[in-house]
Amino acid sequence: MLIDHYGGTTFPVALGKTVTGKATRAILAEIIGEDAADRLCHAYGAQGKLWVPKCEGLTLELRNRRIRATFDRHTIGGGMTAADSVREIARRYHLTDRHIWRILKEVDQTPPASRQTRIIW
């Protein structure tokens, strides 16, 4: 994902007409794919840059959902004890077991309706 590589920064978006523009577009295509890079460059190429948000809240929510799903797989279908599952998940995500227990007590957060126009996806 683009936010994993460039979140919180301004990314140069090029139309791909110059050597530098082609190189920049190639980097973008490697990260998000050819089709998405074409659409992004078409939408923002004339501006020359695109601010990429960090999306920390979304990133954490997705991580926490993966943690809860892994715990369910371990304990419901995998025959693992809750404590063993929490220890394994804590090691995998480099978090404390106490933090994993807090995450497991949470419910999935529903994001507010977006007011942003859907341009690319």
UniProtKB/TrEMBL annotation:
SUPFAM superfamilies: Homeodomain-like. Transmembrane segments: none annotated. InterPro entries: Homeodomain-like_sf (IPR009057), Mor_transcription_activator (IPR014875). Pfam families: Mor. Residues 23-118 form the Mor transcription activator domain. This is Mor transcription activator family protein.
